[in-house]
Amino acid sequence: MKAWKNITLNFPGLKLEGIVEQLSYLDVLSVTVKDKRSLEESDWFDDPHTPLPLHGDTHVIILLMDASRSTNQLLEELCLILDLDQTPAYSENVFKDRNWITHTQAQFKEIYISKTLRILPPWESKTQFVGKTLIIEPGSGFGTGSHPTTQLCLRWLETHIRPGESFLDFGSGSGILSIAAKEFGAGDGAGVEIDPQAIKNSNRNSALNGWDIPFSDFDSLTVKEPYDTVAANILSTVLIRLSPTLKSMTGHRLILSGILEKQVHDVIKAYTTWIQLTPVDENNGWVLLSGEL
Fold it and tell me: Where a domain ends, among 47, 76, 97?
């Protein structure tokens, strides 16, 4: 059976941007930069407006290659390209080929958000459950239900959505929050996303749950009047920039997630001119903020 291997490289004390660019000349299948810090210390993921600093003290570089290829030869080429006097510290992991579709599907199982709310991927058969089931197909859109920030938002929606109220999910990802809001009785709803592939994923998930929720990019969104409830589960740095935008769209209530405990103060401060936000729930170091006009 075909086999592959990952070569994990450590470059302490060095900036990685230039190194990554040079390593792209190697004959490997992929070059990946991975954060080696804990969840609390990590920057989570990149904000295109403020790119993350990639440094050998906080990140490693992983090269994927055919397992039959000589690791020593690769390292010799690497040292030549990077003009290194000695081989960097590295580790090697060999793994066999597999049915990647089956393997990927196996990573997504039934997720219980509460005693009355669960999430299933479409390939899992429904079992008896007293409550609501959301069908979410993992795709390019963030929000399969496994991340603490998504779970925080879902728990809030389950207990706070009011029948018939309008709902906007700003940064809708997989569409999971808009779908949940409809399941809990919301009226008119919409989702806004910048990634075209995520919008396709949202539309697919909406259909799987029997809804026809409009998902679009920001430029295509028509806001006739503010939404009763607006949710945004995005990076804290992006949430801070979005304060004026979300103000124009929020009619009554706002919930924000994607915020680590150390970021709460800065996010609240960015919104104080028009709404008073307070922490209402937390999950594994992540915080949900909520406020009313």
Answer: 97
pLDDT digits (tens, 9 = 90+) for 61-93: 999 988 899 999 999 999 999 998 899 999 999
Query: Is residue 239 predicted with pLDDT exceeding 80?
Result: yes
**What is the enclosing helix (H) or strand (E) of 222?**
none
How far apart are alpha carbons 208 and 75 in whole angstroms?
A: 48
Q: Assign 223 to helix, strand or coil.
A: coil
For residue 159, what is the domain's CATH number?
3.40.50.150
Count: domains in the chain: 2
Residues 69 and 126 in one domain: no
Strand, coil or helix: 33: strand
- Which of 76, 97, 118 is the last residue before a domain boundary? 97
CA distance 182 to 30: 40
The residue with tokens 């006009």 is: 293
Cα separation, 18 vs 249, in Å, equals: 41
